[in-house]
Write a structure and sequence with these properties.
Strand order of the largest sheet: 1-28-27-26
Oligomer: single chain
Strand content: 35-45%
Structural class: alpha+beta
Number of strands: 28
Shape: globular
Largest sheet: 4 strands, antiparallel
Length: 507
């Protein structure tokens, strides 16, 4: 014991500190954390920010460091940025997750989709055949704090797919699913009372496979694909008002917003409507392919900076590029949307029988000659920005700053700046055998999480500021979605949706 206490490695002199710093310089974040647990002096030496910075991002440039400092100073109103340091980033990158509990709806049907509201207190779980389950969070309760407040089947005509999204500022849910006897999806808007009684206030339709997207509390968008000519398809984006009149049926107030040409024959299935700050000149001073952005740099840290002030509405979709691989969505495309929407009221004087007869008469008319490809392109709105990606898109999510989106692909995760759509970071995954065509990723100021391996039940976790891989959360059944709960910086939680249950994991 006396030899250990008199060890020169525990002397608090300058030469010992310098030697320890030289040794710690080459340690990984996990080894540096273990070294800090040896004794009080080692903990003091290992707490130096420059050691953690080097262990996490050894090749970071001075320009990136300056940008990160400016971003951190700008984001001090955000709790997770107030106490941030490279040492804390090391703790985030090496944190271990444990599975705490499972949430299983009473209906017991295989799960498809999960949606969480803006406050993080309400969950909507959608299962096969339109079985909806709503959960409410109450941290004063024992256990995980979630309890089921509603379980019902919202439609008898849906198949084994579905999606849901909460309205931005109301207790209102937009859900969609495929009609069994029709080649289209049906969308329903459900209003909930304070005691969770629900009523359908709106119905709409969309092409197969497109998920619901709110514009605001009173409007949502739908996508309608059409084969206009051989090997040439277009998709019309329509705005739908949730205020409707009824005339023997639900009659939606629908107006077209824009028409998109489906490049490379790729269907539009992944969509996102975002309110983002105005672009700056510095956002456009970058021109690399996503595969080259392996470590955080200045543009990436600008994407993490939250900007207050005027904002603009933007539509982001996954699609193909001219000359790209046919049938695969390997790019992000973007369009500006109007800031406000004025929908005219609709009143139908004809009944269903009259409208059906008129439709059949139109269908009996001889078809018009299909337009050529170039003529069809001229009728569509060109994207205002685009970003080619090295692999097929599987999922999209907006970063909390509103200045970038995270894109899950079959080969990795990409961070793409907005609105310039420049690649900011690429997190490679390696080749995967994907049996899923869609997953739900999520991101906050500390972590990015995403299911990545089709059918394996794996969810990957990365630390946002350093881009370091944190953990692989393995589940027994296929993982479909991962959501980060809004929480205090020291109490992170992730919800992982599998076909069997919703798993709650915490640090």
């Amino acid at each position: 014991m006396e030899e250990v206490q008199n060890s020169p490695w525990r002397n608090n002199d300058g030469s010992t500190v310098a030697v320890l710093q030289a040794v710690f310089w080459y340690m990984s974040p996990s080894d540096l954390g273990r070294a800090a647990a040896v004794c009080q002096m080692w903990r003091r030496v290992a707490s130096a920010d420059f050691l953690w910075r080097h262990s996490l991002v050894p090749h970071i440039t001075p320009d990136a460091l300056r940008t990160l400092r400016n971003t951190s100073a700008n984001n001090q109103h955000i709790a997770s940025w107030q106490a941030w340091s490279w040492r804390r980033e090391g703790a985030l990158a090496t944190a271990r997750w444990t599975r705490r509990t499972k949430l299983r709806p009473t209906a017991g049907a295989p799960l498809l989709h999960v949606a969480i509201d803006q406050t993080g207190t309400h969950l909507a779980l959608l299962a096969e055949y339109a079985q909806l389950s709503v959960w409410e969070r109450n941290d004063s309760l024992d256990g995980a704090g979630w309890h089921e407040v509603l379980s019902k089947r919202v439609s008898d005509e849906w198949g084994v797919e579905g999606a849901a999204e909460w309205a931005p500022n109301r207790r209102r849910l937009l859900i969609g699913g495929p009609l069994i006897l029709a080649d289209r999806w049906e969308f329903l808007v459900l209003d909930f009372t304070t005691d969770w009684h629900s009523s359908v206030v709106c119905r709409g339709s969309s092409s197969p496979g497109t998920w619901p997207n709110w514009l605001d509390d009173a409007h949502f968008i739908t996508f309608h694909a059409r084969l206009a000519a051989p090997h040439c398809a277009t998709t019309t984006v329509c705005i739908n008002a949730t205020t409707q009149g009824t005339h023997s049926e639900y009659v939606g107030v629908v107006a077209p917003l824009l028409r998109i040409y489906n490049e490379a024959g790729a269907n539009i299935t992944h969509t996102l409507v975002v309110d983002m700050p105005e672009s700056t000149i510095e956002d456009r001073q970058h021109d690399e392919s996503p595969m080259e952005c392996r470590e955080p740099h200045a543009l990436y840290y600008r994407c993490l900076r939250e900007i207050r002030g005027s904002r603009q509405r933007y539509l982001i979709v996954s699609g193909g590029l001219r000359g790209g691989k046919r049938g695969e969505a390997r790019a992000l495309l973007g369009w500006h949307l109007p800031a406000s929407f004025d929908m005219p009221p609709v009143f139908l004087r004809e009944g269903i029988a009259e409208r059906l007869l008129a439709r059949r008469q139109r269908e009996a008319e001889p078809p018009e000659e299909p337009p050529g490809e170039e003529a069809l392109r001229a009728l569509c709105s060109l994207p205002e920005a685009s970003c080619p990606l090295p692999a097929t898109v599987l999922g999209l999510v907006l970063h909390p700053s509103g200045r970038s989106v995270w894109v899950t692909t079959t080969e990795g995760i990409a961070c793409v700046s907005l609105p310039a759509m420049q690649p900011a970071l690429w997190l490679p995954l390696g080749p995967k055998d994907y049996s899923l065509y869609r997953v739900q990723p999520h991101a906050d100021h500390d972590y990015m999480v995403s299911p990545v391996s089709g059918g394996s039940g794996a969810v990957e976790v990365w630390s946002v500021r350093s881009g370091v891989h944190n953990a692989s959360l393995i589940h027994e059944t296929p993982a479909l979605a991962a959501l980060l709960l809004p929480s205090q910086p020291s109490a992170h939680a992730v919800l992982v949706l599998t076909t069997e249950a919703l798993h709650v994991c915490k640090i």
